[in-house]
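WARN no homologs supplied; continuing
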Amino acid sequence: MSLERLPSRPRSRDNHAVDVEVSPPPGADSPRGGGWWLGNTPGRQALLLAGDGLIAAVSLLVAMALRFEGNIPDSYVATIPPLALILFIARVATNFGFRLHRWAFRLSGFADAMRVVSAGLVGSTVFVAALFFLHASFPAGKDFMPPRSVVALEFFLSATAMGLVRYSPRLANVLLADRQRARLGPTLRTVIVGAGAAGEMLMRDLQRSLKHGYRVVGFVDDDPSKHGMILGGKPVFGAIDHLPDVARRHQVEAVLIAIPQLSAARIREILNLCADCKLRFKILPVSFIDHQERGPAAMLTDLAPEDLLPREPVQFELERGGERVRGRRVLVTGAGGSIGGELCRQLLAAGVGHLLMTDINENELYLLSLRLRRASRSSAVSAEVADIRDESRMRALCAAFRPQDVFHAAAHKHVPLMETAPGEAIKNNVLATRSLAAIAEDVGVERFVLISTDKAVRPTSVMGASKRVAEMVVRQAARRKKTRFSAVRFGNVLASAGSVVPIFREQISSGVPVTVTHPDVRRFFMTTGEAVGLVLQAGYGDYGELCVLDMGEQIRIADLARHMITMAGLVPDVDVPIVYTGLRPGEKLFEELLTEEEERTTAVSRKIFTAACPEPPGDLDRRIDLLGEAAAREDGAEVIRLLRQLVPSFVPPSAGPTSAW
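OK structure emitted
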């Protein structure tokens, strides 16, 4: 369960959406802010300027009264009307020049306050200059000049009053929004992590908006100089490490992380700190400066498992601006899957000429084709239901379509299922790959990219061993040099169909225990975008026969489960138990990306390992034929025996294959 994004409707304390009509506060619909009388029409602008002039005249009278302690001499009383008229004109003209009549009442900030002060200073200067001019022109009117203290007092009074007029609607709007949010339903007492520019902007945006259910009680920040400060009317309680104490002391229910691009390590530390606090989390992942058209609150996003990766995500860009992709005919097998679907989306975005998507899952294929056609508004998208094991069907499709590039993402990938049906792994992952590679050569495909897995390295499962043989098929085909063949090997893809992340989400939302096979099991993880970027880079970058992403450290699955429970606002092992079920047949405690032989011949380029692969056996085709015959006979024991001969590093589970029934 990922940390939730800012909801579009207010939510109750148990995070259920409150079904209410949200009525914006007065002025909320105005594009420039403020109430109906504070818009940007000429009449209202004139009213604001006239009000500034009246403020100046009244401030002059008050300044006189203060200067003479309420007993203004008669000589000065007579000068008040002409002085007020001159001051009125000076203030109106100066404020017009500073454009104070064009005021965004709900969005004004510090720079606008400085405009008010600057206009006040310049207005007072103009007023005094006008009086000196009149005094020089009419020397007899010496008493026409007011005391200097009156000029200073009038400036402070006028600037203060003009500021109050302009900032009062904003304050009133904040107070009104607080009251309306309270009427709409219970709000979540919230702490903002980060008292910097992003945190301050987020606070201001939350104060103006009704489209959330948060009541901010304060901030935490690691900068000691900010501790004890008041920001947006809310205190900075202390360091981030004090967050659990702050949460308990102030009954906090939600945490908004307003430190853009906060490191994954620090996020994990925060989740560990708050594991016992039952908090909801959101994060501001990018700087609001890059998205000025959106408020910070609108950019709050779910804190997702990819935010926990112990490394910075790798961004891939196709070389030469994707020129190698633009206009080409591309076939993607397994298009209905997570990787295949994202491949199709990115290929269309890169300007592929015509895309043919195939999959045996007709429902997912149909939905994907609808989404892509709607998003790209392109007719260059075709979808064909096809089983990659059906050689005649695939040959007919390739002969008709004549693809220039093939991305082979179709495969059986679930380790436990392939342990009970090893023959199916051979048919789909080995025989179909060999058949498709041969078809690709026959129809003149220029590039063929196989999607492989880290489970192919020193495999302990039938699935991993079958993908290892598929890599051998690709390497053997690459020796013929008719088509450029390559394999891409990577670890688990976060949130892909059937992976642990959606399984954990479902278990947490259902209130059942989260199941982890072993306390020490670890896996490499990457995002879908990284996986597809790597595939495209390998396919069009001509890096080598085998490409592997530098995936950093492996993540403990038990830690991932605990963090996801915490992100859901629950306490691990209290609200949601974690149950260890034991390693499944064919499952490893940890994965590897390269064999020792491959590591000795590895070069690193742009976070990609490019391994020089050993030669496959000379009788590879004969051995694969034997595997196919054993698979056709449903002889699982023979399949495993032949796999062990072909892949010497394959160590199957001691129990061997068992019946699915």
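The first strand starts at residue 188 and ends at 193.
OK
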